[in-house]
Design brief:
The protein is elongated, with a radius of gyration of 24 Å. 1% of the residues lie in helices and 46% in strands. By secondary structure, the chain is mostly beta strands. The protein starts with a strand and ends in a 19-residue tail after the last strand.
């Protein structure tokens, strides 16, 4: 269940460059800087081909970003995640999109810059050979916000190419965790706007002035109906809170909360969360959280929804630091893969 987080389409390709692994002074690594979207890295696609009877393997990596994004982007540190390798001999001799599956071990922080790098090993080509690995790029009018880069073993240096962009796609397996921009319909929750961000400022509910009572509540979702909300048919109950400020989650990657969801439902500014806590001998506290700014592609299937709340209990009060939502979905179109390659199974975060 994955969606594109950043890409530069093959429709922009007007040139190729080659990588090879022979001779000691070769160029066998290249890359492109991109922006994370807050989800779990699932797979990447490159627009690549083999020359002649090229052999060896190609593998992708994601690195932290250094330099000025779009001008001098280069990778730094050790690889944050490593894909499965692909056998170059099985590639087509025409450029095609080929998938590189990652192990779903890296959350790409929303807005953070990264470098997607591809490395060839065991090729028998060279600067005057027809046995290299080719990758597609745009050299005439590149418009991606990042930039191309390559590593030369001749001078052991990463070199940024500010006027080139590679053809690539990076996919995440969910929307990632998203906080609301609106807290409304508040009842008996003090400082409710503090709930919009995880920053150790709290909304609070006084639960009971009597001892011996546990604090119970529910988390629920809203289906948008015009400018109003309709609660779903399935509540997620919770009991008295612990004494530590930590997240607890409800729902999951295949939990639809008893409903059938459309893309328009999820993308609506009125799609939201209902939080209710029983104050026992007092009036109950509740609020609605919405305005998540989600933008799931048209035609996608909604697979699951997960909610997490950062809150804790102390004495006769509940303190709520943040509430977030994550939506799992599958895009409507099947990702294109290279010749002789099958679409890998989608993995849930």
């Amino acid at each position: 269940m994955s969606a594109i987080v950043d890409s530069y389409s093959e429709s922009n390709q007007d040139n190729t460059n080659f990588l090879y692994d022979v001779g000691g002074n070769e160029i066998r690594e290249a890359g492109q800087s991109f922006t994370g979207g807050g989800g779990v890295l699932d797979y990447a696609k490159l627009y690549i081909a083999k020359q002649g009877s090229a052999v060896g393997s190609i593998q992708c990596f994601v690195y932290a970003h250094s330099g000025t994004y779009g001008t001098s982007s280069v990778p730094t540190g050790s690889a944050l995640s490593t894909s499965e390798s692909v056998d170059i001999s099985t590639l087509s001799d025409s450029l095609s999109l080929v998938t590189f599956q990652f192990p779903n071990d890296l959350t790409l922080v929303s807005g953070t810059k990264y470098c997607l790098v591809w490395l060839v090993t065991g090729t028998t080509g060279g600067t005057s050979s027809d046995k290299n690995l080719l990758y597609g790029r745009d050299v005439s009018s590149p418009t991606h916000s990042g930039n191309l880069m390559y590593y030369s073993r001749f001078d052991s240096t990463w070199n940024a190419v500010s006027n080139n962009d590679a053809i690539f796609y990076v996919y995440e397996s969910s929307t990632g965790w998203v906080s609301p921009s609106v807290i409304e319909n508040v009842s008996y929750v003090a400082n409710a706007d503090n709930i919009k961000a995880s920053d150790d400022t709290y909304g609070s509910v006084t639960t009971s002035f009597m001892s011996g009572f546990s604090t119970d509540g529910i988390i629920d979702l809203y289906i948008p109906s015009g400018a109003t909300n309709v609660r779903v048919n399935e509540d997620k109950a919770f009991t008295s809170l612990s004494g530590d400020d930590s997240y607890r989650s409800m729902g999951g990657s295949s939990d639809l909360w008893g409903e059938t969801w459309t893309v328009d439902d999820i993308n609506s500014e009125y799609f939201g969360i209902y939080y209710f806590i029983d104050r026992v001998d007092l009036n109950s506290g509740n609020f609605d959280a919405r305005g998540f700014g989600l933008s799931i592609p048209s035609g996608s299937t909604i697979d699951g929804i997960e909610v997490r709340v950062e809150d804790f209990g102390s004495s006769n009060q509940n303190f709520i630091d943040n509430i977030q939502i994550k939506v799992y979905y599958t895009e409507g179109s099947t990702p294109t893969v290279g010749t002789k390659y099958h679409l890998p199974p989608f993995k849930r975060s």
